[in-house]
Amino acid sequence: MSIQDKATQFIEELKASHYTAVLTGAGVSTASGIPDFRSSNGLYSKISPETFDLNFFLNQPQAYYQIACEHIHPLADKSPNVTHTMLAELERRNLVDMVITQNIDGLHQKAGSINVIEFHGNVTGFHCTECNKPYTRTWVDAQIQSRRVPRCLACGALVRPDIVFFGDLIPVDALSAAQKAAEQSELFCVFGSSLQVQPAAGIAMLARQCGAKLFIVNREPTGMDSWADEVCYADLTEFSKAVLERL
Question: Global pTM?
Answer without folding.
Answer: 0.93
